[in-house]
Each structure stands twice: as C-alpha cells, then as structure tokens.
Amino acid sequence: MATQFLIRTSYKAMRLAAAKHLSRTPVRVMCTAKGIPTNEEQATGLELRALLAQKKGKDPYSIFRPKEYAGTSEDPHIVPSIGDKRLVGCLCEEDNTAIVWFWLHEGNPERCPSCGSHYKLIHQELPH
C-alpha cells in the first residue's frame, strides 16, 4: 500500500512539473504576421540562384525540358557545350535500342550518320 501511495504521488508530482514547464516555454507559431514564407524567402544558395534565374526566364542548370527542334538544316537540334566538341548520341527511331554516337564540332550543323537529323553545337558558359 505504501508503494502504491509513493507511485501515485510521484506520478502526480511529475505531471505537475511537466505542466509548469510547458506553461513557461514559448509557443512557436508556424504562420507569423506575414504568413507562411514563400520559396524565395526561405531559399538559399544554389536553390536561390536557380529561382532568381527562372524569374528572369533563364535556365542555367538545365532544369527545364529542352526546347524541341525539327532537326532540319534550317532548324537543327541545339547541343550546348563548354568546349569546342561534344559526343552526341542519337536515337534515330522511337523504338530503336541502339544509340548512334558521333562527335559534334562547333561551327556548322552536322548530320547524324544514320538518320540524317541535324545537330548544332553552341558554346555555353558555366553558371558559376
């Protein structure tokens, strides 16, 4: 009986201490006077750079889907590169399992040796 009394009193004492402690701690509210922060307000570093570039209409880190081109000599597929040549792989047909690889050099558009699609290499600077 004495042990039950000790257990009950210690349990009540712990509950009272926890209640006093909780009443003294400040409550953090998720939405402040301005509301929930936007992505631009809480983004930092590389994410912030990407968001600011997207606002300007640029895509410095190739986040967006590339623009589609016809692949003709007048409207070739654009291939960005930081050098003067790049290895390009062409899936000539939709259901093709083999990739045709060829080197693309800066300058005039070049054709895929298999299907004849035109590709043009343009020089692009690194964003950082």
From TrEMBL:
Q: Which InterPro entries match?
A: Cyt_c_oxidase_su5b (IPR002124), Cyt_c_oxidase_su5b_sf (IPR036972)
Q: Where is the signal peptide?
A: none
Q: Which SUPFAM superfamilies match?
A: Rubredoxin-like
- The protein's superkingdom reads Eukaryota
Q: Which Pfam families match?
A: COX5B
What is the protein named?
Answer: Cytochrome c oxidase subunit 5B
Upper lineage is: Eukaryota, Metazoa, Chordata, Craniata, Vertebrata
